[in-house]
Specification:
By secondary structure, the protein is an alpha+beta fold. It contains two helices and six strands. The protein has a single domain, classed as Immunoglobulin-like (Sandwich). A six-stranded antiparallel beta sheet has the order 1-2-6-5-4-3, with no helix packed on it. The longest helix is centred in the N-terminal third of the chain and has 16 residues.
Length: 93
């Protein structure tokens, strides 16, 4: 656990020094929300659960849970996921 935390710290400092965005250097998810109707997640690891009321997506350090109504997966690519519907909340688990 200590080595993993040290690795994260080194990657963060390295990315800051070279002015590289954290989502690229540390493989962090990048989430773009357009109003409450569209959501784009980049750098995901796969879909864990999908219903019209909730979607759980695996990311490097856990999960992202999206809750709402009439949720639909519009586009699924190896590193990009596009969700449409009435989005009520986004949580990191």
């Amino acid at each position: 656990m200590v080595l993993r935390d040290l690795g994260k710290k080194v990657k963060k400092q390295f990315s800051e020094f070279l002015e590289i965005p954290g989502d690229v250097a540390m493989d962090l998810p990048k989430i773009t929300l357009v109003g409450s109707v569209q959501l784009l997640i980049e750098n995901h690891r796969g879909i864990i659960e999908y219903t019209r009321e909730g979607i759980r997506v695996s990311v490097v350090e856990g999960e992202v849970a999206i809750a709402g109504e009439n949720l639909m997966l519009r586009n699924i690519l190896p590193d990009e996921l596009y969700v449409e519907g009435e989005i009520h909340s986004i949580k990191f688990l």
